[in-house]
Amino acid sequence: MPKKKEVIEFKIEESEFGGKAYGYIDGVKVKVKHGIPGQVVKAVVKKAKRKEAEAKILEVIENSPLEDQDTCSHFGRCGGCFQQAIAYEKQLELKEKQVKDLFVEFNVQYKEWLGIEGSPEPFNYRNKMEFSFGDEEKGGPLTLGMHKRGRHHDIVTVDECRIMDEDFRKILVTILQYFKEKNLSQYNTRRHEGYLRHLVVRKAHFAGEILINLVTTTQEKLDLKDLVEELLGFELKGKIIGFLHTFNDNLADVVQSDRTDILFGRDYLMEELLGLKFKISAFSFFQTNSQGAEKLYSIVRDFVGESEEQVVFDLYCGTGTIGQIVAPTAKQVIGIEIIEDAVEAAKENAKLNNLNNCRFIAGDVKEEVKKLKEKPDIIILDPPRAGIHPNALKDVMSFEAEKIVYVSCNPKTMVRDLVELEGRGYKVEQVKCMDMFPHTAHVECVVLIEKE
Fold this sequence. Notes:
Mean pLDDT: 94
CATH class of the largest domain: Alpha Beta
Shape: globular
Number of helices: 9
Strand content: 25-35%
Strand order of the largest sheet: 7-22-23-21-20-17-18-19
Low-confidence stretches: none
CATH topology of the largest domain: Rossmann fold
CATH superfamily of the largest domain: Vaccinia Virus protein VP39
Number of domains: 3
Largest sheet: 8 strands, mixed
Radius of gyration: 23 Å
Number of strands: 23
Structural class: alpha/beta
């Protein structure tokens, strides 16, 4: 039986949703992060119980037979695409099985399983990247990119990353070189000293607009005009329509704004999906895979079905994308979202699309649904990764809508909520997975639920 701190070797047998995998030592199930079925690994035990243990992979002794694809130069160091060495079709099979296993684990029944749909582009698909400034080794040269796998403070420059839009690679290299020449320090999250924090780049895939947001502290004063001019002179596939400078002196290692200055252009970009226009601000949520989003929203629209003369609630609506896609055939759409900027964008988007039957409310779903006097015929749920707050779910169920379409980026919390819905007389009619995040552990799931 494995003991805490013991170094063990074993074969990965199966994987679970969320990037976990497991094998067995002396009949004890050992779970690890980022394991791939078929790998033989060396790992150190972190927690040990009689029937189950948790360990951290130290070394892959033998690759899985599934790992037969070429990878980018950052693979293994960067904490992003741990499945990149697996053929994309096989990745889809693994993800579909992981979601199915969750339904079995929670004993959630469904009438029809519609499989998994792949991303139209498995590479170069990300329309938003949030990079961090740092160093790969303590005291090393300035880096700009993603966190190193398993290391919170080390940053790998990902200038050859294959999942982000190709324009981002040119922008990243230019900005990194600029600040290297200026010899400016990155922000140290432990000492709370330094200037450079994050770089956020967004691109409207279909419209081609690019928005750059540099995030720093206020510990230096720097005129960035020459950097902006250099970037504007570049030949890119898209077009830079805005360069923002956000100041953030918050201690937490997150992108947020104490103040944002527009150094060039505007502070939003425009995107088009399924014939509708969407204004996306620097800090508002929007799906990171534009082509995948069209497929995802088409699935949602199909599940909603006929909605003429019906009232639709779009809960956790973000910038109102899903609600507006179903609005043309609905009587009324009411959206609720906690992020005020996103709600303002949703209202603007509805005007842009000449949709007069949409109302968007800023607030917490669990509070705002209590205030609604309208009775929904259809409810669309698209909650954050943590799922729906239990109080909010009770209120959602109390409306007794005939149809609920649940869109989830975390099938594990979704099936937990489905158990509650089943207990209130709802039945899962259809399930379909949509892979918005190739080469990562994540997958979206759409479920049609109807009142029995």
